[in-house]
Inverse folding.
């Protein structure tokens, strides 16, 4: 038997929820009734099972730079629970070695959890008892958006960046569309994964609401945002722009940081009500800004931000405020957004992302002025009035560089920088060689490296030998 992500506990619950033949007509006072439409609503409202995404992207990106020999590094090395962090940081070919409790990739696990729950709703809700047809279709639509998001994250971690010339042969990830504990986990081509993502999102759109009560619940702007993000990853900038437009028709509010001097839960919206968020997804592990796994920021990122940017003043803090390394790292700064707002960072699609997708489209299509207009619509909300100056571009190339830099400023430590590094790594404008030193050893990531693709946990491959490991 092939074990679908070692989720025995989950399947015990799903068997009850999904209603195997022997359970179909059982009613117990005070218990859920299998195959009731309302139960699928309860399942979709269980946010923890749908919202969690990966956390490795930020550690691998050029957002982060550890101080070699620091107390932070020593603490990371000293515990099995955090050793994987350094493996990601140094782009190791094996992140979760077999043996011990921490041989499971929790990002992979939670995304396939989401897919499994989504498959239950997609395959069963339409034939459930009670509820209207419209209600059932809406449940399926929500699950389709969640499944598409999970696959988009998976394919951008464990497969090569999308390349139209090789996508039909590049290995993607296992494509699971039904609930079955004995499916072979064969990796489908990258193109097939993207086709399924687009199919799920377009199928979902008609039944989704225009607005959601909470950002954790998919809506039309959620699906449009996911489609814009998907087509950007595919290099189809025209479709990315069109879907970004569609998302912004429904949701276009920006949080105004210009008058905030110190971010707090009193002056910054909770994630579930944040008007910038089209669909809330969070990095596994919750609040990140605790020692020793707090993300110490690279000097290149800090230079790009500058000290007047509100994203610097509000969402970063000195190492002394965060790490064990305060005395030995007086000039260091760490990502602090999670800590100051007391909740995990959003990595789902957002209004700023849609604006910068449009900016990139115009930069790539000979309209640098319009590209800068979209960049500046965002930047005016990111500086105090006295410190704000609109950006200008001399030509389309200069505009594109400025757009990518603005994406870096806006989304640092929120997954998308790693995605940008992947999709742009072969573009001469953005090629880089990233180096890191740990315990005296230098590690290098250049544009041709296989380490732009994360390895699948060895434990998964041992359980499922048909699942080919990344080189």
């Amino acid at each position: 038997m092939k074990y679908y992500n070692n989720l025995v506990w989950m399947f015990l619950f799903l068997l009850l929820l999904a209603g195997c033949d022997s359970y179909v007509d059982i009613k117990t006072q005070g218990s859920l009734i299998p195959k009731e439409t309302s139960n699928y609503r309860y399942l979709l409202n269980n946010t923890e099972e749908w919202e969690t995404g990966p956390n490795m992207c930020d550690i691998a990106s050029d957002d982060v730079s550890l101080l070699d020999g620091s107390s932070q590094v020593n603490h990371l090395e000293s515990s099995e629970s955090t050793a994987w962090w350094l493996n990601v940081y140094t782009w190791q070919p094996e992140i979760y070695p077999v043996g011990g409790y921490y041989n499971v990739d929790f990002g992979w696990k939670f995304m396939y959890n989401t897919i499994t729950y989504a498959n239950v709703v997609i395959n069963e809700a339409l034939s459930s008892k009670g509820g209207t047809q419209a209600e059932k279709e809406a449940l399926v639509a929500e699950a389709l958006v969640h499944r598409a998001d999970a696959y988009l994250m998976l394919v951008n971690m464990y497969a090569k960046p999308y390349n139209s010339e090789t996508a039909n042969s590049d290995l993607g990830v296992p494509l699971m569309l039904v609930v079955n504990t004995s499916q072979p986990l064969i990796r489908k081509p990258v193109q097939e994964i993207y086709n399924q993502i687009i199919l799920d999102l377009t199928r979902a759109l008609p039944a989704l609401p225009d607005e959601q009560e909470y950002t954790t619940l998919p809506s039309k702007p959620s699906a449009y945002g996911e489609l814009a993000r998907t087509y950007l990853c595919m290099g189809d900038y025209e479709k990315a722009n069109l879907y970004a437009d569609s998302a912004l028709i429904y949701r276009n509010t920006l949080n105004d940081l210009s008058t905030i001097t110190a971010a707090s839960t009193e002056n910054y919206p909770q994630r579930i009500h944040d008007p910038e968020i089209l669909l809330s997804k969070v990095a596994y592990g919750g609040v990140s800004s605790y020692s020793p796994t707090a993300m110490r920021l690279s000097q290149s990122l800090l230079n790009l931000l500058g000290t007047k940017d509100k994203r610097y003043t509000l969402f970063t803090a000195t190492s002394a405020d965060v790490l064990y390394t305060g005395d030995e790292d007086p000039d260091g700064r760490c990502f602090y957004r999670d800590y100051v707002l007391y909740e995990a960072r959003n990595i789902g699609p957002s209004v700023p992302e849609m604006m910068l997708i449009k900016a990139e489209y115009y930069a790539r299509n000979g309209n640098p002025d319009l590209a800068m207009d979209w960049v500046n619509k965002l930047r005016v909300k990111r500086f105090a009035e006295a410190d704000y100056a609109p950006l200008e571009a001399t030509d389309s190339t200069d505009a594109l560089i400025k757009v990518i830099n603005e994406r870096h400023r806006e989304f640092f430590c929120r997954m998308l920088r790693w995605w940008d590094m992947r999709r742009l790594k072969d573009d001469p404008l953005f090629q880089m060689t990233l180096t890191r030193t740990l315990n005296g050893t230098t590690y290098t990531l250049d544009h041709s490296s296989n380490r732009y693709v994360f390895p699948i946990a060895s434990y998964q491959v041992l359980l499922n030998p048909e699942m080919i490991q990344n080189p």
User: Anything to note?
Assistant: The chain has 20 helices and eight strands. Residues 133-158 form the longest helix (26 residues). Residues 70 and 328 are 7 Å apart (CA to CA).
